[in-house]
Amino acid sequence: MRVIATGVGEFGIYAGGRPSTVQVLSDMLLLSRAARQALVDGEQFEWMPAGQVDVRPIASHKRTGKVDLRPSTAREVALGNTIAFVALQSGDRVTDLLRGRVSVHTALDHYSPPLRDHVSRALGRMRRPTATLQAVTMSVVDPAARAAKLPAVLWPEWTSRLAPRRLDAEIAGGALAAAVVFVGTRLTHGSAIKLLDPAAQGRQVSHVMRSLGRNAPEADTIRAIARLAALLDETATPIDFSRRRVIDYSGLLPRDAWHEICRTANVLPGGDRRWQTARAHLYALLSGNRVARAPFAHEASYPSFAELRSFRDGLPEVVSSVLNDWATAFLKARHVDEPVEWMPDLEFAGLAVDVSASGRSEWPQARPARGVVRPNHAVAAYSAGRSVREIAFEHGVARQTVSRVLDEAGVEPRIGRRRADIDVDWLRQRYIDERHTIPEIAAEVGVTMTTINRHLEAAGIPRRARGSASRATAIRVDPRAGDSPLLRRILVGQDATQRAERFLIVARHDTMTAAAAELGVTLSILANQMRRIGVDAGGPLIQRALRGQPLTLTELGVEVHNELSRAFGLSEAEDPARPAEGSQ
Asked: Which neighbouring-strand residues pair with 553?
C-alpha cells in the first residue's frame, strides 16, 4: 500500500532503484506465482514465514500441475503475495524463488530492473548482457571511432554466428553492431545505434540484447562482441564505414551496366527483380547500411532483406567477381581508394570458421554454344597457328563464338592476311579442271576467299558464272566414300560430311537432346539433319528415345555407322585438319 500511495518502491531489492508502482506490482505478480508453485512442488525455504506452508488453499494446480498466474480465490492470492513480499527483502531469496520457475523466453519489459537482474541470475546469467559489455575494461574507448570501422548491419558471417536464431537477421545485425559500439562505455542502446544508423530505434537493440545467451549456442556471444570491440580499437581497418554510409548511391548499377555485367559473365540478366536485387546487394556491400535506406528502395521490384540473402547465397562466382570489379570502379570514381569489402577474421573472436560447402548455384547461360568451347584448348590451337574457322568447325560453333572466347582469354588476334604461295598451274587445275569452288580452295589453302579471287585475277583465270559452284558441290561425291554404294549415296552434296559426323555423335548419346547440347545446336536442326541422312541412306537410321529408354540404331543405322566409322577413321588419320565441307 505504501508503494501505491507514494508511486515508488524503496524497500528490499528496490533500495536506491526507485522503480515505478506498475513495475513493483508486476514483480509481485511474478513472485507470487513462483511462491505458490514452490509450495505445490513441495519446496520450502528456511526464510519462508512459519505459518505459510499450507498448500490446501492452492487449487489452481490440480488440473495441470502448474498454478495459474491469476488464481480465482483470495486465500491463494494472499498466500502467494505474503511469501513474495518476504522474498523481496533479499536478492538471494528472489533468486531462490525464481530458479527453475521462470522460462528463458519470459518477456521482461514490464518488470523492474532489479528483478530483471535476479531473473538473469536465476537463469544462470550473473548480469544482463548490456551491463556485462558496458563493464568491460578497454584500453582505448572512442565509440565514434569504433563505429566508423563497423557497418550499420554487422557482417552476415558474424551475425549468423552471434545472433539468436529466432530473430530477424537484419535487425539482429544492426543491434549487434550497436552492441560492439557500446562495449566499455555508458552509452544507451539508442545512443549507440544512432552512431551507425540515425534512423534506427534503440528498442530494437534492447530486444536483441535481452535475448542473448538464453540458448547454449549463444553462450559465447558476449565474449565474441567484446573481443571484436577490442580488435577494432587496436587495428587500423582498411574501410571507413562512416564515409561509406554517406556516399551518394543514387547512380549505383544502372540497368545497362547490369546487362553488360551479365553479358561478360555469359549469364541471363533476368527481369527487373534480379537487377534491383543486384543493386541492393551492392548497396549493402558498399555502404554497410540497411537495404531499406538505399535511395532507390522505393522503386518497384525492390527486394526484401530475405530475398537479398537468397540472392547472395545463390550468386554464381563469375557474376560475383564481375560485380566486385564494377564496385571497385564505382569507388574509384568517387576518389575512395578502399577495397570493396572487408571483414575481420572470425577466429579473432574465438568463433569457428564455417567450412561447409558453398550454396552458390549456376544461372542459365546466355550463349550455350560458348560453353561448348574449351578456352584452354582454343587458346592452344590458335597459338599453334590454327585459324578461328578451323577451331570453330572442330567445336561445331560459329566463328564469332570462338573469337569471343579468345578475346576473353586475352589472346591478341593475328592481324593481316596469311601469306600463301599458290602455284598458278595447281590453282588452274583445281578451279578449271576439277571444278572446285572458291570456298573449297580457300579452306584447303587456309586463306580467305578474297585471297583466292585475287590470285585467280592475277593469273588471268576467268571465274565461273554464278550458280555453277552450287551445282558442282551438289553432284560431287566425297572421296572418303570410296567404292561403298551406301556411302556414295550419303556423302554427296553440300554439308554431307557435317551430317555424317553429327550422326556419329548422336549414336554415342542416349538422347537426341544430349547430342544437340554437345554440338551446341538446336534440337530441331539436328533432327532435320538426321532425317536427311536417313533419306539419303534409304530408310530411318535412328529409333528415337521413348519413355526414358535410350535411342537405338536401326539395322540400316548400324550399317551406316560402321561404314562411316571406317571411312572417317581412315580420313582423319590421313588428313586430321580437313576443312569443313562447303564452308566459307
From this structure: 542
- Say if residues 337 and 244 touch (Cβ distance below 8 Å): no
Distances (CA, A) of 71 to 26, 51, 296: 15, 20, 55
DSSP H or E stretch at residue 543: strand 542-543
State how far the Cα of 65 lies from the Cα of 82, in Å rounded to an integer: 22
Residue 34, number of CB atoms within 10 A of its CB: 23
The CB-side HSE value for 128 (13 A sphere, CA atoms) comes to 18
User: Got the DSSP string for 510-532?
Assistant: SSHHHHHHHHTS-HHHHHHHHHH
* Helices and strands counted in the chain (H then E): 30, 2
Between CA 294 and CA 355, with CA 167 as vertex, the angle to 5 degrees is 85
Torsion of CA 25, 26, 31, 36, to 10 degrees: 90
Nine-digit cell string for 25: 506490482
Cα distances (angstroms) measured from residue 12 to each of 24, 88, 93: 11, 6, 11
H/E stretch holding 542: strand 542-543
Measured distance CA(123)–CA(1) in Å, rounded: 30
Q: Name the CA dihedral angle for 137, 140, 142, 145, rounded to a multiple of 10 degrees.
A: -130
Residue 127 pLDDT > 60: no
Residue 560 is predicted with a pLDDT of 92
Q: What is the pTM of this model?
A: 0.49
Residue 539 neighbours by CB under 8 Å, 6+ apart? 554, 556
SS3 553: strand
In this prediction, residue 581 carries a pLDDT of 37
Task: Give burial (CB, 10 Å; 0-12/13-18/19+) of 435.
Answer: middle
Is the Cα torsion angle 459, 461, 467, 472 positive or negative in sign?
A: negative
The percentage of the chain sitting over the pLDDT mark of 70, rounded to a whole number, equals 84
Largest CA distance in the chain: 132
Cβ(84)–Cβ(35) under 8 Å? yes
Output phi, psi for 54, to 5 deg: -85, 125
For the chain, the straight-line distance linking the first and the last C-alpha, in angstroms and rounded, comes to 104
**Crossing angle of helices 272-287 and 255-265, rounded to 10°:** 100
Instruction: Indicate the residue type of 117.
Output: D
* pLDDT recorded at residue 289: 93
- Look over the chain and give the mean of its residue pLDDT values, rounded to a whole number: 81
pLDDT score recorded for residue 561: 92
SS3 state at 152 = coil
Give the span between the Cα atoms of 565 and 266, in whole angstroms: 36
Average pLDDT over residues 286-306: 90
